[in-house]
Amino acid sequence: ASIGSDLLGDGSESDPWQTLTFAVDQLSSSDHVVHVAPGLYDAALGELFPVVFSSRLQVRGSGPEPAVFDGGGSGMLFWITATTPSTSPASPTLEGLVLRGAESGVRVSVDSFLFQVPTLVLREVALRDMSGAGVEFLSPDLNTLLVRVIDSEFQSCRIGIDSRFVIEAQTLVKAEGCTFEDCGIGARVQAVFPTLAPAVSRIELNGCVVRDCRVGVRAEEWEATNSDVMVSLRDSLVTRCGTGLEAVNAAEIALERSTVSANQVGLGVGGVATELASFPLANSVVWDNGALDLD
């Protein structure tokens, strides 16, 4: 907080630290909830971006006004890493924050060969004006990465949610009640390397709205044999985008009780694979779009 002190504070409500950077450094080895007071947190205050933590730390905004983290137009704001296996799934959490003006809002990555890593939770986080991804997930070899993004807002990001995986990883991102607006791509899942064992990368959009994006939702499968690349939309709306849904090569985008309407292109495909992209529909509507590009 602007009234706190990293030199004299003790981290209590009555005597807070000034920066989240300092608070995380003090608490990185144990489970804590860090309450962030309203105000602006940037380099001028003393924040050192990215703020990095790997424990089961929970960072929550507190108070009637938002806690705003501003990157000044470059860099990454938060980097959440998993460096040790977890026998009991944990929940590193970001909640009630505004992240803006950076290359990337939140990056989530894991070291190799952890097999099971903590479930990450983002709740009521607004990500705005990111030249890269609002939230990006990278899961390397043999890992299982689970993420929940709840009631969050992605605005004016090059990519709202970006999920990528490499050899034999399993990544599942569940977005619930989120809004994606004026992004280059609202949500993207991507597989880019051949795999020897089954690999899974999925994004689930439940009760979400995607609007005014260049591409609403994009699933890409690039030379990732033996992989399952999929986005599913349930009770969601994709509207006023350049292309509503775009699947590349053998990727799949599935709709259930969802609507794709008023886009320049409703459904589009790309790539050069012999396997075709697919768009399974269940109780869904694709209508009033300028065109379908399924060639």
List keywords for this structure.
17-stranded parallel β-sheet; 3% helix; mainly beta; elongated
Work out the number of β strands: 27
The largest sheet is:
17 strands, parallel
Computed structural class: mainly beta
- Percentage of residues assigned to helices: under 10%
Radius of gyration: 20 Å
Outline the low-pLDDT stretches.
none
- SSE order in H/E notation? HEEEEEEEEEEEEEEEEEEEEEEEEEEE
Q: How much of the polypeptide forms β-strand, as a percent range?
A: over 45%
Q: Judging from the principal axes of the Cα atoms, what is the shape?
A: elongated
Mean pLDDT: 86
Question: What's the number of helices?
Answer: 1
Alpha carbon gap, first and last residue: 55 Å
What do these coordinates show?
The strands form 2 sheets. The chain has a 17-stranded parallel β-sheet that branches. The radius of gyration is 20 Å and the shape is elongated. The termini are far apart. 3% of the residues lie in helices and 51% in strands. The chain has one helix at 20-27, and strands spanning 33-36, 39-41, 51-53, 58-61, 67-70, 76-82, 93-95, 97-102, 104-110, 120-123, 126-139, 144-150, 153-165, 170-176, 179-181, 185-191, 199-206, 209-211, 215-221, 227-234, 237-239, 243-248, 252-256, 259-261, 265-270, 281-282, 285-287. It has 1 helix and 27 strands. The longest helix has 8 residues, at 20-27. The chain has 295 residues and is an all-beta fold.
